[in-house]
Design goal:
The complex is a heterodimer of chains A (234) and B (119). Chain A is an alpha/beta fold and 234 residues long. Chain A contains eight helices and ten strands. Chain A has a single domain, classed as Rossmann fold, CATH 3.40.50. Chain B is mainly alpha-helical and 119 residues long. Chain B has a two-stranded antiparallel sheet. In chain B, helix 1 crosses helix 3 and helix 2 crosses helix 3. The chains are: A alpha/beta (234), B mainly alpha (119).
Chain lengths: 234, 119
């Protein structure tokens, strides 16, 4: 279980997170959505323990998160943080040296499923192929929590669809939880149990997708648009 | 694989309809084993929790039975299966009639046309 209690974080005068309260249950796939600047990346960084929060608390399985939790949480940042001269194989060796939970066999299996050659250099890969390689490295970790920041952004629909298949195949919701931020709700919603909608650093709504479809009679994107507008008015 | 889903109806509901359709058409037969939750999730391209819910609902609808340690099987209860066929038939005809009435066609001309087309 991940719990955020009144979490605030500012960059200078900009309030990136403005009092977030959230409970994320284990064993689910949860999407974080919201307009640009709504706080999605900052929220993921706060949960991953890679960015210090201003006030409030972030608890993972009952314990406050810290930088050391990088070992418990497989975090996939939006930015390209990998050495460009690495081959995919060297990237995996690097992961193995950094993370005790890295399972090289599984990472190679994911890579194979996504059809990326192990010997290619990161810098020579297309954006789509690099996205797949990053996904393989992340899923290679046997972590309880996967946090992925915009894993589909800038990738074409075919790549997105392959990555979604990879996520279904290579996560085990009986013991793992996946939290991902995304703009591509339409393509990703099939994957999600729940959706958290952010606006100006606050949680506007947190709903089960079956509820959104079943109760409101709207599709998810329609619902998001309506909620975001209502949030702006209120 | 991966299927296309309607956007404004719960996915688990659409999967129940799909599996029920398989049963009615005889693609899945009484006593057949359903794929494991994980297999079916990968096959249709949805998350395993969704499939878990589908299997649970189908069991409570008595369309499937769970045998401990073996998985889910399509019921061999003929009465229940007949009920499923009847209710599907009724739904299809009712929605057909509603559609036709919305255009203002008379019952007689529709019955007449259906008789002619169906021969």
């Amino acid at each position: 279980m991940i719990e955020l209690n009144n979490v605030k974080k500012a960059y200078g005068y900009t309030k990136a997170l403005n009092g977030i309260n959230l409970r994320l249950e284990p064993g689910k796939i949860i999407g974080i959505a919201g307009e640009n600047g709504s706080g999605k990346s900052t929220l993921l960084k706060a949960i991953a323990g890679v960015s210090r929060i201003g006030s409030g608390s972030v608890l993972i399985d009952g314990k406050p998160v810290s930088r050391k939790d990088a070992e418990r949480i497989a975090y996939l940042p939006d930015a390209d943080m990998f050495y460009s001269y690495f081959t995919v194989g060297q990237l995996f060796s690097y992961y193995k040296s950094q993370f005790a939970d890295f399972n090289e066999t599984k990472a190679k299996e994911v890579l194979d499923f996504l059809e990326v050659p192990l010997s290619s250099k990161m810098k020579n890969l297309s954006k789509g192929m690099r996205g797949r390689a990053k996904m393989a490295a992340t899923l290679g970790r046997e972590s309880r929590y996967y946090l992925m920041d915009e894993p589909f952004s800038g990738l074409d629909p075919m790549v997105r669809s392959d990555l979604i298949k990879g996520l279904i195949r290579f996560t085990d919701l009986e013991r793992q939880t996946l939290i991902l931020s995304t703009h591509e709700i339409r393509e990703v919603e099939i994957l999600l149990d729940e959706l958290v909608l952010l606006k100006s650093g606050k949680v506007l709504a947190h709903r089960h997708l079956d509820e959104i479809r079943g109760e409101t009679g709207m599709d998810t994107v329609e619902w998001m648009t309506k909620e975001t507008k209502a949030g702006a008015a209120g | 694989m991966g299927l296309d889903f309607e956007k404004d109806k719960p996915i688990y509901q659409q999967l129940i309809d799909r599996l029920s359709g398989d049963i009615i058409r005889g693609v899945r037969k009484p006593g057949d084993k359903l794929p494991s939750v994980r297999e079916y999730a990968i096959e249709v391209g949805v998350n395993a929790n969704t499939v878990q819910r589908v299997y649970k609902e189908m069991e409570s609808m008595e369309l499937t039975e769970t045998r401990r340690g073996q998985g889910s099987f399509i019921t061999e209860n003929e009465e229940r299966l007949q009920l499923l066929r009847d209710s599907k038939k009724e739904d299809l005809v009712k929605s057909f009639i509603a559609n036709v009435e919305a255009y203002g066609f008379s019952k007689d001309e529709i019955v007449e046309l259906v008789r002619r087309e169906i021969k």
